[in-house]
Amino acid sequence: MAEVQPPAADGVLAEAAAQPSPEAAELATAAAAVEAVAVTTEVAALARLYGEPLLKLPNDLYIPPDALEIFLEAFEGPLDLLLYLIRKQNFNILDIPMAQLTLQYLKYVDQIRLSNLELAAEYLLMAAMLIEIKSRMLLPQRQSELDIESDDPRAELVRRLLEYEQIKLAAYDLNTIPQLDRDFVRTQIFIEQSLVPTWPDVEPIDLQQAWLDVLKRAKLTQHHKISREELSVREHMTGILRRLQSSRFVEFADLFDGAGGVPVVVVNFVALLELAKETLIEITQAEPFAPIYVRLAYSPA
């Protein structure tokens, strides 16, 4: 018969550690219940008031009747409403049917009076004006008024409507112009600048190139002026004769002054040839390659 051995001490301790204590089981159950309640509260809460969930609406909650209003057509005043009714019905603004216009206008005013009495006061003033114009048009005219053309009772209303329409169209055109902070945003760029200016270094080659550019521009703007100078051969002939009278022999090169320029030298040479042609002077040379001398052909008395 087999003998049954008792379990080891280590196995007992491991089994005891695996089974939770009654206190730990109660804490786990309570935490799960609280979490379930929190989830249910989050789902069933209608709103939160000061951070606390609101599970049902209070019995004394008051919701005003105008808490939610939807305006399908919003008007900026009585003239705006009248202009809308005229354009919607395709009425001629210069020949307004006052009966139909007044009836439609009063229906809209009755709706305003139900919601906002202060706003309806301005519309009621215009309604009174429409009724007055309508009544004046219904009154029979006297014979004296028929002979004299009377003003149309609608003229003042038409003038105000036309002016309002022009102003409204102008305001619409101005609104289409892009505006700052509505249609576009101004770009701001921050640039850090040093208080001490830093200048670039100039190399000698840069200075040389700048000077050459100045000279080039100066040459492009320079002018060459040609002037006419009258030179007389007779005057130069007289000058040569006077020079030879004071000296017996004068070297050929000394008779020419290079400071006067090429034209003066040429004319002086022509004068010398004329004197030689007329045998008034003699041009001599002692030997080949010797200096050439000029003297008078006669002896002064």
Counting DSSP H or I runs of 4 or more residues, the number of helices is 10
Assembly state:
single chain
Gross geometry: elongated
Q: Whole-number radius of gyration?
A: 62 Å
Order of helices and strands: HHEEHHHHHHHEHEE
Structural class: mainly alpha
Main location: cytoplasm
Pfam families: SMC_ScpA
Subcellular location: Cytoplasm
InterPro entries: ScpA
Describe the model:
It is a single chain. The chain has 301 residues and is mainly alpha-helical. Among the domains are: 78-139 and 152-176, no CATH class; 233-296, Structural maintenance of chromosome 1. Chain E (Arc Repressor Mutant, subunit A), CATH 1.10.10. Helices cover 52% and strands 6% of the residues. It contains 10 helices and 5 strands. The chain has helices spanning 9-18, 22-44, 78-88, 98-115, 117-138, 143-147, 155-175, 204-220, 233-246, 262-277; strands at residues 47-49, 52-54, 250-251, 281-285, 292-296. The strands form 2 sheets. The chain has a 3-stranded antiparallel sheet. A two-stranded antiparallel ribbon has the order 1-2. α3 crosses α7 and α9 crosses α10 (262-277). The chain is elongated, with a radius of gyration of 62 Å. Participates in chromosomal partition during cell division. May act via the formation of a condensin-like complex containing Smc and ScpB that pull DNA away from mid-cell into both cell halves. Keywords: Cell cycle, Cell division, Chromosome partition, Cytoplasm. Belongs to the ScpA family. This is Segregation and condensation protein A. It comes from Rugamonas aquatica.
